[in-house]
Automatic annotation (TrEMBL):
Principal EC category: hydrolase
Listed name of the protein: Abasic site processing protein
Family classification: Belongs to the SOS response-associated peptidase family.
Entry keyword Heme: no
SUPFAM superfamilies named in the record: BB1717-like
Keywords for the protein's UniProt record, in alphabetical order: Covalent protein-DNA linkage, DNA damage, DNA-binding, Hydrolase, Lyase, Protease
Organism domain of life: Bacteria
UniProt organism field: Sinorhizobium mexicanum
Statement: the UniProt record of this protein carries the keyword DNA-binding: yes
PANTHER family: ABASIC SITE PROCESSING PROTEIN HMCES (PTHR13604:SF0), DC12-RELATED (PTHR13604)
EC code(s) of this entry: 3.4.-.-
């Protein structure tokens, strides 16, 4: 099991006094699998690193590295995934040709 690294904060709009939660996915250089499709990838954490990532430790930089490609799987999916109106699980079904 693994998780994605991210950071978040609550920002208060000074004009409306409304709290807005913001979120960012932390990325790193890609592993050899992901480099074939993009110049970066999400930081993927092992379960045993969750607590450390979520702690108040100021510098967990050693966790911000590419996840091993041999522990990942990849398959080609259709273009429907690019639109939020396509909100069904089948958009992640593999299509041919596979990688």
């Amino acid at each position: 099991m693994c998780g994605r690294a991210g950071i978040w904060e609550t920002w208060r709009n000074p004009e409306t006094d409304e709290d807005i939660r913001t979120f960012c996915v932390v990325t790193c250089t890609p592993n050899e699998m992901m480099a074939a499709i993009h110049d970066r990838m999400p930081v993927i954490l092992y379960r045993e690193d969750y607590e450390r990532w979520l702690s108040i430790e100021p510098d967990p930089f050693d966790l911000m590295k590419p996840f091993p490609a041999e522990l990942m799987m990849m398959w080609r999916i259709g273009r429907k995934v690019g639109s939020p109106k396509n909100d069904t699980a089948d958009i992640l079904d593999p299509i041919e040709p596979a990688f």
